[in-house]
């Protein structure tokens, strides 16, 4: 467990910057931080190993961190060509790395390239064991192409309720609705109901922010200024440090 690992690693000798002195311990510290979804501004210091035995690991996890930060182009540029270490990873950690790579590909690469790459990653799993995240990303890679209908079906599959990968399932629901809106397959009233349901079902992170922003704008467009204001207030209370706070507060005043 990543939380327990951090507790143990914190007992080791630390550098002046608060990170473990030992290269391997510092790498493990970084992996734990990344897999827990912690802020990644210190990732370059977590993965600064230079010893040959750890260099490939450090390069790989620097790329994973960049992908999780949304820096898709930088992540792909940093991705090591050699990934022999993956075969030694437990399944859950290998999946985390592959999903990070797939996310960067879908965000930055040509649709055909990203589709082929994501499909190749999915092919490495037995039927019924493909991670929800890869199914979602395979769907996204098909949107806007001649196979968009297949993409919607994959998103719908990823959006099904289940006991695992809850955030990925919630993202799939949100992106499925956005795709339907883009195609004009649902009207604004239906879109609002989908977003209201998702706002109740999911709390936390970038997804909640995206849902609340879309919902507030839609409530205002549908002449529900009170509902729009309440939604923006929830957003501001939950994320007081968000970068676009001035724009949100301006819209609140004008509602």
Overall 3D shape: globular
Helix share, percent: 55-70%
Would you list the SSEs in sequence order as H and E?
Answer: HHHHHHHHHHHHHH
Tell me the radius of gyration.
20 Å
Number of helices: 14
Output the structural class: mainly alpha
> Approximately what portion of the residues adopt beta-strand conformation?
under 5%
Q: Report the sheet with the most strands, covering strand number, pairing sense and barrel closure.
A: none
Contiguous low-pLDDT stretches (5 residues minimum) are: none
Number of strands: 0
Describe what this molecule looks like in 3D.
- The model has no long low-confidence stretch (mean pLDDT 91).
- The protein contains 14 helices and no strands.
- The protein has helices at residues 2-9, 23-35, 43-46, 52-68, 72-78, 91-108, 111-122, 132-142, 148-158, 166-182, 188-201, 205-221, 225-238, 245-254.
- The protein has 255 residues and is mainly alpha-helical.
- α7 (111-122) runs antiparallel to α8.
- The longest helix is centred in the middle third of the chain and has 18 residues, at 91-108.
